Amino acid sequence: MILVYFSFHYHFFLFYLLSLSFFFFCPLISLASLVMRQRKQGGPSPNQGPKGNREATLGNTYASSRKRGFFVATALFLVFLSFMVAMKWSVKEEVVFSAQDIARLEVAVDQVENETAISKLEELVNTVVPLSCVAEKLLQKFMHAANEEDHRELDDLAKRYHALPALLTSVSRAGDALYTRLKGMLLKEPDALLAGVPRFLPRSFFRYMAATLYIQSVVLPDYHLHRTENTDEHVRALVRARNLLQWSENIQNENFFNWTSSVCHRAFEGVASAHWVKFCESSLTSPTVTEIRTAAVLEELIALDSSYAPFRIHYASTLSLLDSPKVDRTTALSVIRRQKESLTKRQYKQVEPFYIALLDILEAFVTPLNLIEYELTQRVERAMIHLNSCSRLREPFSQGNTSIVWPGRRALKGEARAPLFLVEQVNLVADKLSLVFSDDQRASLERLRNCTA
């Protein structure tokens, strides 16, 4: 794969040095020319005659030559500057990939699908990362031209990058293969490839996670939004991204989230684009940024289907449990109350039995202690009873119940659904509510502690 860039800054700096050389060397050239001319004409040389005359002659010559050198350098600089401005508007940045790149990616995908060696997974990741960066860069070009309604540019891009659909198809296949392998590792499925990778090879696993997330939450959504307009595939990619983000927080290895953002620079150094590195830094460098990215993915899902209730309850849960100064608890509280209002107006579809009960629990969690009223604690206690020892809450998240995991979404049939709460998050909610519950009510909190799906 070849990335060809016209670097205006590099050429600008190079020619500026050339201009400065004229500034310093023109006086010397002029002085040498004067000496040779005087010798040829038989006149006095600067080395002859009184010392004062010789120094005066040399001084005047050097000053005038330096002045001429300055003007020559300035003129050359202005000419080159004009040339570079013209070049900037006439020369286009080229991103080149070959059919061999796509073929190599296809081979890597086939190997991961048919073999279980970790080396094949490593090879696929190393192959797909630079190509996914190229695909995203080209998608951005098409999106920019479309937003500007530049039909001529769109036609030109379509001609120059006619192989882009084939590249995106291969990147999509790679994303599917990587997601399947990572899902097996994270959920410790019986036939998973090296189920111990998340614990024993955290740095390698980080690379796999970052590469897959970039495909599922950036490249494929842009592809389906602006090229195929396939909403079902768009939703599927984002659901998978959300699952990976949620499952990653459940890895019992502090090293996975115990690094600085520099790990993103080192993961695919010299290969990944600046956009990839920025995405990595804002997605996988700490539990907090992971939760923020999860909320952003859920916002995209809601934008695609604003009336689908399961997306809404996941968003309310993520926002309520998000521990970040960037998100005020009042924001989560307003989201919960708006969802309750929409439920009373029947504005959502596929509302699950536990929806209202969970909203009551989340409302109590995000409400400041001094503002929690007795009526709210009563509603939370009724919510515990309604959950019926959490059986209703667990059912949709069971891997065996593929028909009800994502109710009413045929396109998501068979897709996993990460739970609403992690164990640590459930304990946080229960600890908060125990401070305001009576002794009789605290017994019901044990039901909540069991809701770890």
UniProtKB/TrEMBL annotation:
Keywords: Membrane, Transmembrane, Transmembrane helix. It comes from the Eukaryota. The keyword Transmembrane helix applies. The chain crosses the membrane at residues 12-35, 70-91. This is Transmembrane protein.
